[in-house]
Amino acid sequence: MYYGIEEDGNYDAGDTAGRITSPIIDLNGLDSAQLSFNYFLETEGLAPDYDVATVLVSADGGEFIPIASNAVELEDPATDWTNVTFDLSPYAGQEIQVSFEFATEDRAFNNFEGWYIDDVTVTASETNLYHTVEVGSGENVEDINFGNFSLEVQSEIEPPLTIIEDDGTAAFAKDEDGTYWIVNNDTKEQLQLQNNRGTTYTDITNANWDGVAVEVDEEGGYRFLLDGENNREGEAYVWSTNDQGVINDNSGWLSGNDLLPLESEFNVDLSDDGEIGFSQNIEEDELLRVDETLVSLGRGDGILF
Question: pTM (2 decimals)?
């Protein structure tokens, strides 16, 4: 298609306009479609006020709506054949027509070559007819009816994560890349541990700590325990997260007797003394902190220094 005077090579014929429209294109039963064409375009370059080249679409016999023009989407001038593609997916499931329109909007400065259009195509894909069946780990599913045939399926899906520690309200897990994950032992929800910028963590993120355990906190988020290594040997650190596993607070590095409550909370021996939390030989209610020194109270014997 060419909008112009072929023998003159321009569209200098006054204040003119023209449109060419496709036959009806049936997009019923489709979920996506694209319009593509090649074009050559040369105008005075003042669209959308003058010399406007427009691509329009009508759905189910309705009004033609512009989807592109040389004011924005079409390069002007395009003095070599140029290919463009536009998404018609919003019109999937309807009958459409495509129209190409050119309007000078005045009588002046129309001695440019105009608009050539060629190789107009509409391509589409059929609606996704796949059926999705969710099968949990160790579950068997039988007699799935897909409408036109039945299929017996027996499937045992291995979990995508390796559980590292799951003694408590949540499990610490890693994926095949070693990335840290949180698994809620009650809901089975799997969350990737990350900061508020989306950064994730593995054992090689920092040489001075490794992730070891996680528990649900009182607010529905999680507390994630790091065990210090190398320069942080004998220390521990706790990240607090929201209910999506995004870190929003931390404990700072803790050591010494401050590790004992963490050992009890996470059931992990952080001090490497072979015991979890306070010594089993000393009752917690028999401990006092005096000048930051733990002393044992004998029964009726007073304070022993």
Answer: 0.44
